[in-house]
Design brief:
The complex is a heterodimer. By secondary structure, chain A is mainly alpha-helical. Chain A is built from five helices and no strands. Chain A starts with 24 loop residues before the first helix and ends with a helix. Chain B has two domains: 3-82, RNA polymerase sigma factor, region 2, helix turn helix motif (Rna Polymerase Sigma Factor, Chain: A, Orthogonal Bundle); 92-202, Winged helix-like DNA-binding domain superfamily/Winged helix DNA-binding domain (Arc Repressor Mutant, subunit A). Chain B has eight helices and no strands.
Chain lengths: 102, 207
């Protein structure tokens, strides 16, 4: 029989989950991308929505992952240079040469 | 698809459109695989030459975009090997090479055997404040960029395609030859690490 350490004292200010909420927060944080992609199986989805309705912490993590996605989407605007005009001309010339010389 | 016959016919406008549409994406992706911007530029150039010379062999079993990206991967792989940088592509069986990685530090949750095991010890702080000015907004994006640079290559590859380039999951699975499940596991690990970096940044610690 495994013995566990004594439970920590309840965290002040954190509401306890209702007894019907059987989804651990540690499990939810692994499923956020599945959730956003609509890839949660139907039987789990209801439990997950129920959990989210009660858990401020998991709702925060969901919002944070959505923020990460939105910020990553902004990287397209700034992180690489456009094709220099000279190189574009070289590639266009290579295209013409290859296609006409078939 | 109209584009492919146009390219085969030597239609300038079709090739120009392709350059405009994909060159930056290819450049950004190439940066994931080779050690310098100069080499990435060469990889992209070689990719375009591969497109020019290979369009007659394109069989249309994948989208043109996926086909172009596969050429980039092949060129980058050959080049990365030459530059002595290992290139563990998601497609090369390295997809889940990192083993189990929790999205958040397990200490954030009440331990097994406790009442309400797996629930938060304390809630993560909400990131409600919006950037007050453009400098702060730019800084936040910079934290994301830096965190993405430090991701394991397969995770970086998937997150770049999905969240930066906006590819669909099925396009990514097709291009990298990985399952939808693996795609989501890699993506979630990547996003979670970037989340952790942002959390440290917002809470004033070292990101």
């Amino acid at each position: 029989m495994t013995s566990y350490p004594d439970p920590p004292p309840p965290t002040p200010g954190l509401p306890l989950p209702p007894p019907e909420d059987d989804l651990p927060c540690a499990a939810f944080v692994e499923m956020v991308t599945d959730y956003l992609d609509g890839a949660i199986p139907d039987d789990l989805r209801g439990r997950l929505e129920y959990h989210l309705a009660f858990c401020d912490g998991c709702r925060s993590v969901l919002a944070q992952i959505e923020r990460v996605v939105q910020l990553a989407g902004q990287l397209t605007e700034s992180d690489v240079d456009a094709l220099p005009e000279a190189e574009r001309q070289e590639l266009m010339a290579a295209f013409r040469a290859a296609r006409s010389g078939r | 698809m109209v584009l492919v016959p146009a390219l085969r016919d030597g239609d300038d406008a079709a090739f120009a459109w392709l350059l405009t549409r994909y060159d930056r994406s290819l450049r950004r992706l190439a940066m994931n695989y080779v050690p310098s911007g100069a080499i990435a530029d060469e990889v992209v150039q070689d990719t375009w030459m591969g497109v020019i010379n290979g369009i007659d062999h394109f069989e249309g079993r994948s989208s043109l975009k996926t086909w172009v990206f596969r050429i980039l991967m092949n060129v980058a792989r050959a080049r990365g090997a030459r530059e002595h940088r290992s290139v563990p592509f998601a497609a090369a069986g390295g997809a889940l090479e990192e083993g189990a990685e929790p999205a958040l530090d397990p200490d954030r949750f009440r331990a097994v055997g406790n009442e309400h095991a797996g629930h938060w010890v304390s809630y993560p702080a909400a990131w409600e404040h919006e950037p007050e000015d453009r400098i702060e907004a730019g800084e936040t994006v910079g934290v994301v960029r830096e965190a993405m640079r430090h991701l394991p290559p397969a995770q970086q590859e998937v997150m770049t395609l999905r969240d930066v380039e906006g590819w669909t999951p099925s396009e990514i699975c097709d291009a990298l030859n990985i399952s939808e499940t693996n795609q989501r596991v890699l993506l979630h690990r990547a996003r979670s690490k970037v989340r952790n970096a942002l959390e440290q940044y917002f809470e004033g610690g070292e990101a």
